[in-house]
Design brief:
Length: 145
């Protein structure tokens, strides 16, 4: 899937869509993201020694799992992060790196989906995590208090 196709599943736009592409490899979703040198999340993290923040790596993993939820989501629904567990940062990710993800749904109890994922650069493992989603109605996400 290209970025335009990913937008049919995820609500992320502009600077928050953190995937260049995602594709299926058997039961897995595999995504790629080339980290731009001028990415907003590198500003101040850290001056003169930029590395991709861990929370951004977690977000990229979650977004790459979108392909696995495509058949479960209607245009009136959104996948929403509900949990993040067992996160392990193994190696830093730098500007210019091609970050590659591999995610798998390990359990589903609709509307909840549970996944495992990993991210690497050039075969070097950078992150592993377990995470979950709930499929919610878009109208519930747009209500203001």
């Amino acid at each position: 899937m290209t970025q335009e196709e990913i937008k049919s599943i995820l609500p992320h736009r502009d600077n928050m869509l953190l995937l260049d592409e995602v594709f299926r490899d058997g039961e897995d979703a595999c995504g790629t993201y080339r980290v731009p040198a001028d990415a907003w999340f590198l500003q101040g993290h850290f001056p003169d020694a930029p590395i991709v923040p861990g929370v951004i790596l977690c977000e990229i993993l979650a977004q790459s799992a979108c392909l696995l939820l495509a058949d479960a989501i209607t245009p009136a629904q959104l996948p929403v992060y509900t949990g993040l567990n067992n996160v392990r940062f193994k190696s830093p990710v730098f500007p210019g790196d091609l970050f590659e993800t591999r995610c798998r749904i390990v359990r589903a109890k609709p509307p909840f989906y549970f996944a495992q994922g990993s991210g690497s650069v050039g075969g070097r493992l950078c992150i592993t995590a377990d995470f979950s989603f709930a499929i919610t109605e878009r109208s519930l996400c747009s209500q203001k208090s």
